[in-house]
Design a protein that fits this description.
This protein has helices spanning 6-12, 24-45, 97-102, 120-137, 150-164, 167-171, 195-198, 202-207, 210-216, 235-250, 267-270, 278-291; strands spanning 47-53, 61-66, 76-80, 106-110, 143-148, 176-180, 225-232, 255-264. With 293 residues, the protein is an alpha/beta fold.
Length: 293
């Protein structure tokens, strides 16, 4: 295998460098502003229940948003935000609820402690606690996990843990996962500046890499998966998404892989505010399909 430089890893694991619509230095401020505005609108217009604690950590809280028409069996989607495991908040991701609630789905937007305050192991444990909390709160509902970027990785980790340890499913069964623009092998992160805060080493990176876990411990149970990646993304993110989808299929996991045209790492999430956005529709279709059974 060709040895790659630290600069190569820095470029290929920096999604803002691969967007086409704005210069990299303008992209993040624009993204944050739009997410903040759309999230404020969502909180003002949807029925919600905010800052519900699910654990003892200071950011271990979640916001629920409810459709006007629902029953005890309405599906619940737990959304885990991105931000490189170091940034982001549930408050700036409320807008994700809009397309879910429009489809009659309950949305749970999760906050969690970030690096360097929290280790990768601790973040994964927090998301596991969030899933258990939601499953207990909605015992008759099918629970789905959805996340973007770092959030996609955390969703995959919690789900894979359940697949190789079925006793976890008795506490909180995950019925389906939607992973958007994720990284599923963390070892390349060791060679990026992001690791200054993440403080991963080879052991912690490998034990928190869903694709490596599955290769060592094939799943004894599983649920359907939807894996999405965007056109204007780093080739490494695309490669990792494809390889994870292929790995899931090789173990018999029903997995749909989608490449969304015309968007980058940031507007693929921004546009999910719109129920008519192609990925929004695809996710609702996926959830509806699983919920029927």
């Amino acid at each position: 295998m060709e040895e790659k430089s630290k600069e190569w890893y820095e470029l290929h694991y920096s999604p803002k460098q691969w967007a086409k619509r704005l210069p990299a230095n303008e992209l993040i401020p624009h993204h944050k502003k739009l997410c903040r505005e759309r999230s404020l609108s969502t909180r003002q217009n949807l029925e919600g229940q905010c800052d519900v604690p699910y654990g003892p950590a200071n950011r271990a809280k979640m916001d629920f948003f409810y459709p006007k028409k629902r029953d005890v069996k309405s599906p619940v989607v737990i959304f885990i935000h991105g931000g490189g495991w170091q940034k982001g908040s549930k408050e700036n991701n409320s807008f994700i609820s809009n397309f879910l609630v429009d489809a009659g789905i309950i949305a749970a937007i999760v906050g969690y402690n970030l690096a360097p305050e929290a280790s990768m192991d601790e973040m994964v444990d927090q998301i596991q606690e969030a899933v258990k909390f939601v499953a207990k709160k909605f015992p008759d509902s099918k629970v789905f996990l959805c996340g973007n970027s770092a959030g996609a990785h955390l969703c995959a980790m919690v789900t894979v843990r359940q697949w190789i340890n079925p006793s976890l499913a008795t506490q909180a069964m995950i019925h389906g996962i939607c992973l958007i623009s994720g990284v599923y092998d963390l070892n390349p992160m060791l060679f990026t500046s992001a690791n200054d805060a993440l403080k991963l080493d080879e052991n912690s990176a490998s034990r928190n890499s869903p694709i490596l876990i599955l290769k060592q411990s094939p799943p004894t149970t599983f649920c359907p998966a939807l894996i999405a990646v965007e056109e204007y993304e780093s080739p490494e993110f695309i490669r990792q998404s494809k390889e994870f989808a292929e790995a899931l299929k090789s173990f018999g996991v029903p997995c749909t892989y989608v490449e969304v045209p015309g968007v980058d790492h940031y507007d693929i999430i921004q546009e999910m505010f719109d129920p008519e956005f192609s990925l929004s529709r695809k996710i609702v279709e996926f959830i509806d399909g699983v919920s029927k059974y």
